[in-house]
Structures are given as C-alpha cells and as structure tokens.
Design brief:
There is one protein chain. 32% of the residues lie in helices and 21% in strands. The chain is of the alpha/beta class and 290 residues long. It has two domains: 138 residues, Periplasmic binding protein-like II (D-Maltodextrin-Binding Protein, domain 2, 3-Layer(aba) Sandwich); 86 residues, Periplasmic binding protein-like II (D-Maltodextrin-Binding Protein, domain 2, 3-Layer(aba) Sandwich), CATH 3.40.190.10. Strands 10-9-11-8-12 form a five-stranded mixed β-sheet, sandwiched between helices. A three-stranded parallel β-sheet has the order 5-1-6. The protein has a three-stranded antiparallel β-sheet with strand order 2-3-4. α3 runs antiparallel to α9. The radius of gyration is 24 Å and the shape is globular. The protein binds glutamic acid. Glutamic acid binds next to α5 and β11.
C-alpha cells in the first residue's frame, strides 16, 4: 500500500515537472554546486576558525595498531584516526589537510593546554582528574584495562597475580596509575609508549604488560601467537576527544557530530574498517554532556 502511494506521488510529480517545462528540451537537473557546502558556524567559534583555516591539528597515537598506527605512507591509521577525519570532514577539512601530531599518554594534556593540537583522539580515557586541565567530548568507545603476557605464561590472569611480578605500562596513563594505587605489590615498570614494553615482555624482563584491552588486542594480533590477553577487563575506560578546558561550544558541537555518526552508521563503518577487523562490534556509547 505504501509503495503504491509513493509510486502515485512520483507519477504526479513527474507530470507536474513536465507541465512546468516550457520547451521540448529535457530539463537538466540542477547541478550541484562546485564547492561542498560548509555549515555556517557561529562567529568567533573554534569551528568557524578551523573551517576558515581549512586545516586542523590532531594529536593521536602512532604506535597502537587498530587505533592509531603510523602507516608506511606517512599518515596514521586506525579507529581514532577515522574519528578525527570524521570531525574534520564536518568542518569542511579534507583528510589531506589534517596535520597529525604524535601524542603519547603523558603529553596529551600539555599539548591541548599549550595549543600544540586542536584536539586529541588517542585512546584517551575521560576522567575527573584530567577534566581539571582539559575537556572531553564523547565517549565514542568504552574500553577496559586488561593484562597481556607471553602465550607460554599461565600464572597471571588477574591484577592480584601481579604481586612480586614486573608489569610494564606507560607514564601518564590510567592503567599505570591504577596499578600504582591499587596493586602496590606489583613492580611497575614505566616507559613512554606501549611499544617500549614489547621487547621487555619478549625477553622476560617484564612478566606482563597492562593497558586497555583493545590496545593489547592490537599487539596480540601482530604477534604471531607470541602474546595473549589474559582474564577480563577490570576497569572502565571511556574514550573521549580531548580539547581545551573552556571550549564548551566546540565540545558540544563534537558531541553532536558523534551522535549523528552513531545514528547514520558512519561510526560503525569507521569501527568495522579498523579495530573491527579484529574486535567485535561495540554497543553504541552514551554521550556524556556534562
Ligand atoms: N585509556 C588509557 C589512558 O587514557 C590508557 C591508554 C593510553 O595510555 O592511551 O590513559
């Protein structure tokens, strides 16, 4: 019935168009304008400034497969990178005009505070301590802290098993802070980036590596069976987009962009093209408009 109604409407529209036509020549359909329409942004907003500049500087990880990994072509790839490209696209900025800057865990707040980057999309957990220095749009994904060991290890499955063991993590990360605070019996070994932990794990200098489950899954996927993720995630790590502390307008606008992408399938498509090649599809997160 619905189909018939639409068909009838279509036919009526076709007749109306024919009736309007003043010549025998077929009417050309309206040509789309040459330049893509860029939304009008409020004067003085970060969105207007970035759209006018035609470029944006985004901080991301360069050594985390599935989320942010530098490719041989010189641009990073992964789910975080796709989220960054989507936001840039809504500002009318092509991927080729994004300036990617490597952020490691410890320099994300300083890079946002100093204006070195316009935003950070880098497996960046939203939490109250960080909210004293920066603000967060999102979350756009919910991860959880986990443990990775050699495949041959079988005496570590929970963080309680880390007592007396060497566990590697990264300075300025929430997993490192959690171990230091709640598992003081573990010997925490800290480096600047997670890839720094991989060789020590291989050669037995450390017994485990800890960070978010999905970061570890990327290293496992590339390890040819050498590494495994053990046990269940034991924290909640909601990933947000970090930006300047006082820029509520930009934060709310990014939240709108994220919500639109959840609804129209772009968020899931970005996941499936990157982290989703290894990990299951996630549930749609609930944006926190604090
Ligand atoms: N999501 C955690 C954090 O933001 C761990 C991952 C990372 O260090 O990027 O600290």
């Amino acid at each position: 019935m619905k189909t018939l109604q639409w068909a009838a409407l279509g036919a009526a529209a076709a007749i109306a168009l024919t009736a309007c036509s003043s010549s025998e020549e077929p009417q050309a359909s309206p040509t789309p304008s040459e330049t893509p329409a860029v939304a009008e942004f409020p004067a003085g907003s970060t969105m207007a400034a970035l759209a006018d500049a035609g470029t944006i500087t985004i901080g991301t990880k360069f050594d985390q497969p599935l989320f942010g990994l530098m490719s041989p072509g010189g641009t990073p790839e992964g789910f975080d990178v796709e989220i960054g490209k989507m936001i840039a696209g809504e500002l009318g900025i092509d991927p080729g005009n994004i300036k990617w800057v490597e952020t490691v865990s410890a320099n994300r707040e300083p890079f946002i505070e100093s204006g070195t980057v316009d935003m950070v999309v880098a497996t960046y957990t939203i939490n109250d301590k960080r909210k004293e220095k920066v603000s967060f749009a999102g979350p756009y994904y919910n991860a959880g802290q986990a443990l990775m060991t050699l495949s041959s290890t079988n005496d570590i499955t929970t963080p309680d098993d880390l007592a007396g063991k060497n566990v590697c993590s990264v300075e300025g990360s929430t997993p490192a802070a959690n171990i230091a605070e709640n598992y003081p019996e573990a010997n925490l070994v800290l480096f600047g980036a997670y890839t720094d932990c991989l060789e020590p794990l291989r050669n037995g200098e450390v017994d485990a590596v800890t960070t978010d489950n999905v970061i570890l899954a990327g290293y496992v996927a590339e390890s040819n069976g050498e590494f495994k993720v053990v046990g269940e995630p034991f924290t909640e790590e909601p990933y947000g987009i970090g930006l300047a502390l006082d820029d509520t307008e930009f934060r709310m606008w990014i939240n709108d962009v994220l919500e639109a992408s959840f609804a129209d399938g772009r968020w899931l498509a970005a996941w499936q093209a990157t982290a989703g090649t290894v990990l299951p599809d996630p549930a749609v997160p609930t944006i926190d408009r604090y």
